[in-house]
Input
Amino acid sequence: MRTSFRILFVCTGNICRSPFAELLTRHLLTQRLPNDQVGRFVVASAGTQAMTGAAMHLLTRDHLPRWGVERVAGETHIARNLDRIALASADLVLTADREQRAEVVSRHPPLLHSTFCLREFARLLAPVSLRRTGDDPVLRARAAVSTAALRRGHVMWVNKTDDVVPDPYGRARGVHHQSTDMIGAALHEVLTVMFDA
Output
């Protein structure tokens, strides 16, 4: 078993939702983990129909400082397409909606039990405690994935929209605000369960 843990965020164009989630996750990991443990987590993002080579959307990038991430962090992002290499190496894939989740699993069936919508993953983990798994952050992250997979199908059914982070591309500034708030709230829940609870 690898001693590292790879998280892959997936949206459509890889210029709004998934890069925001990637950058915020890296930031939150540095806040929650000792320096010698942060490097064990590899965080990346990709798009199912990526605007390959494009920069992070300006309106989404503008929301990084609200979550403690310097805006300049978004300037180095370059959109990339979801590929087999990224999928094959991922320990956890978190998507912006159910269609993307289905596409990930269709492209790489072994990810069936480790691919979730981001908001779904947060909901599945919300009541969970991982204290019994010990202090190793990678083991706790793996336990979070297996626990969420076991809980899927045993929790209350929700509407499709409850799992969606709205795509802000081509829409007003307020939609960028809404989607980044949803991403931030979900990531705080997930990482709190993984490392603090």
